[in-house]
Predict the structure.
Amino acid sequence: MLKATVKNFMGCGDAEIVADKVAVLCGLNGQGKTSALLPIAAALRGGVPLGLQKTKAGMLIKTGAGAASIVLENETSKVSVSWPKCERRADGADAPEASDIAVGSLKFPFMPDKEKIELLRELVGCEPSQDECKKALLDAGISENVADIVWQNVTINGWDASLERAKEKGRSLKSQWGIIAGETYGEKKGANWFPTGWDNDLENAARETLEGEITAARAELEFKIANQAVSADELDRLAVEAEKIDDLKKALAEAEKDAEAKKKALADAEKEKAKLPELPKYDLICPHCGKPVAYQFGKLEAVKQTLSGEERDALDQKILDASNAVSKALRESGHANTQKALAEANLKKAEQAAAEYAQKKDLTVSAEEIDRAREAVHKAEERLSAFSKYHDAARIHNNIIENQKIIDVLAPEGIRRAALDAGLASFNADLDTICRAAGWRPVTVEGDMSVCYGDRPLVICSESEKFRAYVTLQILIAGLDHSTAVVIDAADILDSKSRAGLFKALSQQDFVSFVGLTVSKPDKIPSFKKLGIGRKYWIEAGQCEEVYNG
C-alpha cells in the first residue's frame, strides 16, 4: 500500500490517494489529474517536475497558495517534497523510490542504444561469466594463462576499459611491425611478408648457424686482407731498399769507427786540459797600482802574486786553447754519433724492407678477391638481419592476431553480444508475459535495440500502439529495478478493451500503480474495489475524491 497526499500543486488543490494495487485518477480534461501525478513521480524519483530549474519551481505552486507539497508513505516509511524549495526528505529504511522509467519521465525506446544495452545488462544480469569468457578465449586459440589475465583485467577495469586497452595494444603492435618492415601493417601483408635479403632456406635456419656464417666470412676477409698482393712498383721499391744492406753495413762500421776515434780524441783533449794548473783568482784589482787585493777582516790587503803578468797571460792562453780543443772534440764526437745513429736507422730500414719483401713477394690475393670477401661478409650479415626481421615481424604479427581475437571476444559484438542476446531473449519473454496478461500484441526489443509492437517497428505504429509498448516496457523495467510504484498518465489513449488489459497487467505486479485517465463520468471505469485490484478517484476542479461505485 502507498498513500499520496498532495497539496496545492499546479491544478491540484487537495488529493489523498491510496494505491493498494492500482489507483486510477479519473476526470475530465484540465481538472488536475496530471497535477496529482507529477508530484507523486517527483517524490518517488526526486528532481523538479517538467524538467524545470529550481529557480523556476515557484510556478508549480497552485495560484493563491504559498507552497506545494507531497507526502508519499507506506506502512513504515515516507517521502516528502515541498516547493518552491524543492527539498526531498526520506524517512525510514524502505522509503518509496522508483526509477525514471517507472515514473514515466524516461521512455526506454528514446534512450541511446548504448544506454539501453547497459540498462539491460544491469536488469537481467547478462554479463558473461568468468567461465563463459574463458571458454570463448580458449575456443579462439588464446592460452589459458592469457585468458586468466584478460578476465582479471575485466574484473578490475570493466569490459569497455579492457577492450580499449586491448585496442591500444593492437595499435602499438602494428606500429612495432611497421618499424621493422618499413611499411604499414595489414593482416594479409603481415602473414606473407618477407624482408629484403630473404632466402627460402632461412625459414628453417638457426640463429647460431647464421652467426657462425658471419664469423667465418669475417675470418676469411681478415685472412685475405693479411695476404693481399702488393703492386710491382712496391715490390721493386722494397727490393732496391734491401739491396743497400751490404753498403749500409759498411757505412755503419765506418761511422762506428769514426765515432770511436772522435770519442778518444775528446777524452785526450779533456785529459790535456786537466793537466793545466788553475789560473789564480782574485777578488779585486787595485785601481791605483793595478795589483790584486782581497777583502779580509774588514779591510783590503794586497795579495801575494805567484805568477808574473807574462806567466799569467801565457797560462790563461793555454787554458783557453785547451778549452777550445775540448769544445771542438765534443762537437766532432757528437756529429760522429749522429752519423752512426743515422747509419743504424738506414740499415734497420733496409733490413725491414728486405723482411717485408721476403714476406710479400709470394702473396697472391688480389683486390677483387678481397672485395668478394667483403661482399660475403655483407651477405652473411644481411641474411642474419633478414632472419631476425622476419621472425620479429612474424612474432609481432602473431601477437596482433592473438590480440585481435581478444578484442573480438571483448567487443560488444563478441561474447557480450551472445550474453546480451540470451538476456534479451529472457527480457522479451517477460515482455510477452505482460502483453499476454494485457491481451496486447507482443512488444519486443530487437538485437539492434529498436522496439517493435507486434511485427512492426515502433516508429510506424499508431500512437495507441506506441503507448502500449511504452507501458509494457515501463512495467517490466519497474519490476526488474525494484521500483516501489509506476506512474502512468494519459491512459485514455487506449480503448476500453486495451485499458482493461492494462489494469489487469498492473494488478499482477509486485509494485503499486498510479494511472491517470480522462473519462466523462466515473462510471465509465469499473469498480476497482469490487474487482479487487485497487481504487478509483474522481478529480474535479483540483479536488480528488475516491469513488466507491458507478
In short: Residues 125-191+395-410 form one domain. The chain has a mean pLDDT of 89. Residues 12 and 542 are 4 Å apart (CA to CA).
